[in-house]
From TrEMBL:
<dbReference type="GO" id="GO:0051777">
    <property type="term" value="F:ent-kaurenoic acid monooxygenase activity"/>
</dbReference>
<dbReference type="InterPro" id="IPR001128">
    <property type="entry name" value="Cyt_P450"/>
</dbReference>
<dbReference type="GO" id="GO:0016125">
    <property type="term" value="P:sterol metabolic process"/>
</dbReference>
<dbReference type="GO" id="GO:0005783">
    <property type="term" value="C:endoplasmic reticulum"/>
</dbReference>
<keyword id="KW-0812">Transmembrane</keyword>
<dbReference type="Pfam" id="PF00067">
    <property type="entry name" value="p450"/>
</dbReference>
<keyword id="KW-0408">Iron</keyword>
<protein>
    <submittedName>
        <fullName>Anthranilate N-benzoyltransferase protein</fullName>
    </submittedName>
</protein>
<dbReference type="GO" id="GO:0016132">
    <property type="term" value="P:brassinosteroid biosynthetic process"/>
</dbReference>
<dbReference type="InterPro" id="IPR017972">
    <property type="entry name" value="Cyt_P450_CS"/>
</dbReference>
<keyword id="KW-0472">Membrane</keyword>
<keyword id="KW-0560">Oxidoreductase</keyword>
<dbReference type="GO" id="GO:0016020">
    <property type="term" value="C:membrane"/>
</dbReference>
<keyword id="KW-0349">Heme</keyword>
<keyword id="KW-1133">Transmembrane helix</keyword>
<feature type="binding site" description="axial binding residue">
    <location>
        <position position="418"/>
    </location>
    <ligand>
        <name>heme</name>
    </ligand>
</feature>
<dbReference type="InterPro" id="IPR002401">
    <property type="entry name" value="Cyt_P450_E_grp-I"/>
</dbReference>
Length: 469
């Protein structure tokens, strides 16, 4: 054997050793989470778990999850599970530091969201730290029902919603007028955030006069930090910036709270908002609500009614503008008009909700006690077997269409359904009505990429708004 052959054999041996070590370590490390979370449950239970894998130690499947949501195809994460394990509609995984079960089957998702007895809310720790355990999200089922009734009554029902239409119309019309007066293109998403923030603060605080652009920016930071996978209060981390934003927003809300608590009942210069009803409300022991609870309730509603409405509003503007423009002329708006607004009922789509598993067997699968259950609404709404061509804007798909149970849940389901759903629909309805009738929309970068998970144009939808003659 020549020295050259010996050298080649040595190279191949080294390569083989490296590959073997890689395969061994890869296989071993990938199994650590499986052993830790699954096998210790016992043979009977681990064989009854949903299909899937637990990912890497410590990080679970967060790397592939984040990679998917930072790509152009965020649905690749759930689609990969379907491809690997079949259309079971339920999969085990590990996300955000917790062993979890993802549910993306319509009927099972709805069943879990409606089951308050065996599932309780399990929101991310980052969200709970920012909104507080004393909040609507952190309340146990019985307390949640009481607080929800207190908060929802003023923004639901024909009479309550009709009262807000005039407010919303004034804000929308003046905001659109301002947008059209700009001599250069604007970030339409930023303007929409101002609109939605003004609407929600007007309804809850009784006034939107003191709302500044910086307030909307701080709420944006609060939202980003609320779902941070690394909730560290350390400079440089998003969660740290969110905590600072919370303090600033608290300084914005607190004066309103103090003004209302100590105002003279005959003071006609202060318009009432939902904050006044909260100040008069009493808890189960007959005591008035604590300041901390009221502030956290307001934080939650302002957060939910600000960012989500803004993003939906932007897409309700972008998508119809790609289609033919043929609005129906009409004067004035009533709640009945809004319920019949075709573009609204065909265009709205959002996702939310997460619950905490408490040892249960569903559809033949075991969900161990303490595991998180993630109801993946996006997986339902983007399922091509439920909605053909789900990535296309096809309003006609809703013609004579009655969704099957659990196949369309844009505002969630059960006791944790978005409490401001009806208010959001009216806000969208009023905006799209005045916008389509009176303005022209021209995107400057129509091919701007979309960023996730916020699902918005990466340039914040730079556009030129022109008022029609």
């Amino acid at each position: 054997m020549t020295s050259k052959n010996v050298e080649l054999d040595s190279v191949w041996l080294i390569l083989a050793a490296v590959v073997g070590a890689y395969v061994f370590l890869f296989g071993f490390l990938k199994k650590i989470n499986e052993w830790y979370y699954v096998f210790r449950l016992g043979k009977k239970k681990h064989l009854s778990l949903p299909p899937g894998d637990m990912g890497w130690p410590f990080v679970g499947n967060m790397i592939s999850f984040l990679r998917a949501f930072r790509s152009k195809d965020p649905d690749s994460f759930i689609n990969n599970l379907v491809h690997r394990y079949g259309r079971t509609g339920i999969y085990k995984t590990s996300l955000f530091g917790n062993p979890s079960v993802i549910v993306c089957g319509p009927e099972l998702s709805r069943k879990i969201l409606l089951d308050d007895e065996r599932f309780e809310a399990g929101y991310p720790s980052s969200l709970m730290k920012l909104l507080g355990t004393k909040s609507l999200l952190g309340a146990a089922n019985s307390e949640h029902r009481r607080l929800r009734k207190l908060l929802v009554a003023p923004i639901n029902g024909h009479e309550a919603l009709s009262m807000y239409i005039g407010y919303i119309e004034d804000i929308v019309k003046s905001s659109l007028e301002e947008c059209a007066n700009y001599t250069s293109p604007i970030e339409f998403l930023t303007e929409w955030k101002k609109i939605s923030f003004n609407v929600i603060t007007k309804i809850f605080l009784g006034s939107a006069d003191s709302v500044s652009e910086s307030m909307t920016e701080h709420y944006g930071l609060l939202l980003q930090g609320a779902f941070s996978p690394l909730p560290f209060d350390v400079p440089g981390f998003m969660f740290h910036r969110a905590l600072k934003a919370r303090k600033i927003l608290l300084n914005f809300i607190q004066p309103h709270l103090d003004e209302r608590r100590y105002k003279n009942g005959d003071d006609q210069n202060i318009e009432n908002g939902i904050i006044d009803q909260l100040l008069e409300a009493k808890d189960g022991d007959g005591e008035k609500l604590e300041n901390e609870l009221i502030v956290n309730l307001l934080f939650g509603f302002l957060l939910a009614g600000h960012e989500t409405a803004a993003h939906v509003g932007v897409w309700l503007t972008i998508l119809p503008s790609r289609s033919s423009r043929n609005p129906t002329s009409c004067q004035g708006r009533t709640r009945g008009d809004c319920k019949e607004e075709t573009i609204l009922t065909k265009g709205l789509n959002s996702q939310r909700n997460q619950t905490d598993g408490i040892s249960i067997k569903v559809d033949g699968y075991i969900i161990p006690k303490g595991w998180k259950v993630l109801v993946w609404n996006r997986g339902i709404h983007k399922d091509s077997e439920i909605y053909s061509n789900p990535n296309e804007f096809l309003p006609s798909r809703w013609d004579n269409h009655t969704p099957k149970a659990g196949s369309f849940m844009p505002f969630g389901a059960g006791s944790r359904t978005c409490p401001g759903a009806d208010l959001a629909k009216i806000e969208m309805c009023i905006f799209i009505h005045y916008f389509l009738l009176n303005y022209r929309f021209e995107r400057i970068n129509p091919k701007s990429p979309v960023k996730f998970p916020s699902v918005s144009p990466i340039d914040n939808c730079v556009a030129r708004i022109t008022k029609l003659p």
